[in-house]
Design goal:
157 residues; Rossmann fold; six-stranded parallel β-sheet; 6 helices; 8 strands
Amino acid sequence: MKTILLVDDDSAVRRMLSRLLTEEHYHVITATNGLEALDLAEGTVDLVLLDLNLPLKDGWTTFERLTTRNPFLPVVIITARSNQIFPALASGAGALMEKPLDLPSLLQTIRDLLAESAETRLARAAGKSASFRYLPPKPETAVNDGKTRLETKPLKC
């Protein structure tokens, strides 16, 4: 079973993604801030889902520390912050997904990154040509019975 470190300060996002990933047979470890994420990443982690707007240690600083320790670690940046594609490309992140998230695309991105070779991950970290996934935010949310539900088609770039 693969272990995913989910780092987001929003408890609703953590609960929803944790439930989804557990249903997909991943072991999920959650962190609410960058410092906690760095401590938890000392153990065996196969992939990180990392929000950028974090307390105590921001997302980009956390990303840099995580990937300095382990350049083979695939990281998916999940953020509501706009204009992050160029920093994400330059950093060697495996993917950038803007909130609100397209969940089927997120799951496919996780599967793809976990299946990548170490050489591909290292090439991306070194700034060489490698695959990168960017998914802009889903354009619409619908409210149903007082609960927010995401409803649109997946976008692929």
